[in-house]
Amino acid sequence: MPLPRALILFSIACAAMLGWWAQVLAGPVDLHGDPLPAEAAARFGTVRFRHQTGVTSLSLSPDGKQVATTDQGPAVSVWDAATGKRLRLEQSKGSSGRWAIYRRDGKLLVLENEGQLLRLRELDANREL
């Protein structure tokens, strides 16, 4: 009778070790599962919802599941509102983007840049109209 219990405990220990080794081989990650730089042991804060330059606009999708942001450079980012993970990063053509706003149905993103040009971006197909 003790052998099956010992076998079960051994199996659980092996499974835990395999999970640990998989994490070690994948490289260091922070508390959110984002990869750390090669020599880092930990991260204070997070890399979620982070732009390279200052954010100039923020728009929440009608269903509340996504956030679109523009920054002082040419980047337009779409984020998962619950986790903060970047879903899409696009570099706008030409000058920097001023703002991005969702259409009421949430399927289109309206973008405006410093050149006063409006652009429509279909999110499902990931194409500009």
Distance between the termini: 69 Å
Q: Indicate how many domains the architecture comprises.
A: 2
- CATH architectural name of the largest domain: Beta Barrel
Overall structural class, as computed from helix and strand content, comes to alpha+beta
Biggest sheet features: 4 strands, antiparallel
Fold-level CATH name of the largest domain: Thrombin, subunit H
Percentage of residues in strands: 25-35%
Low-confidence stretches: none
Shape: elongated
Rounded to an integer, what's the Rg over CA atoms?
Answer: 22 Å
Secondary structure tally, helices: 1
Helix content: 10-25%
What is the number of E strands? 8
> What is the spatial order of strands in the main beta sheet?
1-2-3-4
**Mind telling me the CATH class of the largest domain?**
Mainly Beta
Kindly summarize this structure in a few lines.
It is built from 1 helix and 8 strands.
Describe this structure in words.
This protein is of the alpha+beta class. It has two domains: 1-47, no CATH class; 55-128, Thrombin, subunit H. The protein is built from one helix and eight strands, in the order αββββββββ. The protein has one helix spanning 2-26; strands spanning 55-60, 66-71, 75-80, 86-91, 97-102, 108-113, 118-122, 127-128. The strands form two sheets. The chain has a four-stranded antiparallel beta sheet with strand order 1-2-3-4, with no helix packed on it. Strands 5-6-7-8 form a four-stranded antiparallel beta sheet, with no helix packed on it. The longest helix is centred in the first third of the chain and has 25 residues, at 2-26. The N and C termini lie far apart (69 Å). 12% of the residues are buried. The model has no long low-confidence stretch (mean pLDDT 75).
